[in-house]
UniProtKB/TrEMBL annotation, chain A:
The lineage of its organism: Bacteria, Bacillati, Bacillota, Bacilli, Bacillales. This is DUF2812 domain-containing protein. The chain crosses the membrane at residues 119-141, 147-168. It comes from Sporosarcina quadrami. Keywords: Membrane, Transmembrane, Transmembrane helix. It comes from the Bacteria. InterPro entries: DUF2812.
UniProtKB/TrEMBL annotation, chain B:
It comes from Sporosarcina quadrami. This is Helix-turn-helix transcriptional regulator. InterPro entries: Metal_resp_DNA-bind_regulator, Tscrpt_reg_PadR_N, WH-like_DNA-bd_sf, WH_DNA-bd_sf. It holds the Pfam family PadR. PANTHER family: PADR-FAMILY TRANSCRIPTIONAL REGULATOR. Residues 19-83 form the Transcription regulator PadR N-terminal domain. SUPFAM superfamilies: Winged helix' DNA-binding domain (SSF46785).
Length: 173, 106
């Protein structure tokens, strides 16, 4: 069986470039990205390779996949793995970047922000509701809603931070 | 992305390539050949721009029999938009050219 290892992502919305750089360093030491796995990446042992990695976000319809991946392949970018709307590609150093213009690159971040925004809504709304319930009830309902509030808060904080990061990157570009 | 008025260089090159029916790869190689590699369009940019042009109805699908190489071509609105941007670019070029000519005489 092939040797594999797991590395944690720093959060694509926060530091996509850092993640891609980390993957490159791993590849130079013979550890190549195989697939996304639970907030990180699974790497597989192979020969040392000097490659660069790039990620794109796009939700593809089944009839769009051939053309999309075909364009990357022809431009010298090998498709590595896909998870939901995230696609990672690798190529030799010096290959034309997948985004060659600033305008399209900015669009990419707004596409990343779409699922992030829905997750944020689904975590913030219950947090607020349970928060209100906790303050305006008493007894068992209060205890239960207090408990639910903290659970919801645990999910809401990172998703709000991620959403803010996507907004920040959109404004910065 | 603000595509229109003025067209970005990438959008301009892609629209100029689609005055005749072409697939994405042909657009990439035509631009690279014409500019001798001085201007290149990455695959993600190309895909993003093609989708935007379709949405704005500046281009239409001409032939989708090959799912890897869908062929697109400019619409009438697309041609008018491209012509308007050519005129805008000509003003820039002429001003600079005339300025340089006058400068070299004086």
């Amino acid at each position: 069986m092939n040797q594999t290892k797991y590395i944690l992502s720093a959060g694509l919305a926060f530091s996509e470039a850092a993640d891609m750089k980390k993957l490159r360093h791993e590849s130079m030491q013979g550890w190549h990205l195989k697939r996304f796995r639970c907030a990180g990446y699974e790497l597989e042992k192979g020969d040392n390779e000097d490659v660069i990695y790039s990620i794109d976000y796009r939700l593809l319809e089944p009839d769009e996949k051939d053309e999309y991946f075909g364009m990357f392949a022809i431009a010298g970018w090998t498709h590595v793995c896909t998870e939901y709307n995230m696609h990672v590609f690798k190529a030799g150093k010096g290959t034309v970047p997948i985004y060659s213009d600033a305008e399209s690159a900015r669009d990419k971040i707004s596409r990343l922000a779409i699922p992030v925004r829905s997750v944020t809504i689904y975590t913030v709304v219950p947090t607020v509701l349970f928060g209100l319930l906790m303050n305006f009830t008493s007894g068992t309902i209060q205890t239960v809603s207090q408990f639910a509030f903290y659970i919801a808060l645990i999910f809401a904080v990172p998703s709000v931070m991620t959403y803010l990061a996507t907004i920040y990157h959109q404004l910065k570009k | 992305m603000k595509l229109f008025e003025p067209l970005t260089d990438s959008v301009f090159y892609i629209m100029a390539s689609l005055t005749e029916p072409r697939h994405g790869y042909a657009v990439m190689s035509l631009v690279e050949e014409t500019t001798k590699g001085a201007f290149v369009i990455g695959p993600a940019s190309l895909y993003t721009i093609i989708k935007k042009l379709l949405k704005e109805q500046f281009i239409v699908m001409h032939d989708e029999s090959d799912s890897r190489r869908k062929v697109y071509v400019l619409t009438d609105v697309g041609r008018q938009t491209l012509e308007a941007d050519i005129a805008r670019r000509k003003v820039m070029i002429e001003m600079a050219e005339k300025g340089l000519e006058r400068g070299s005489i004086g």
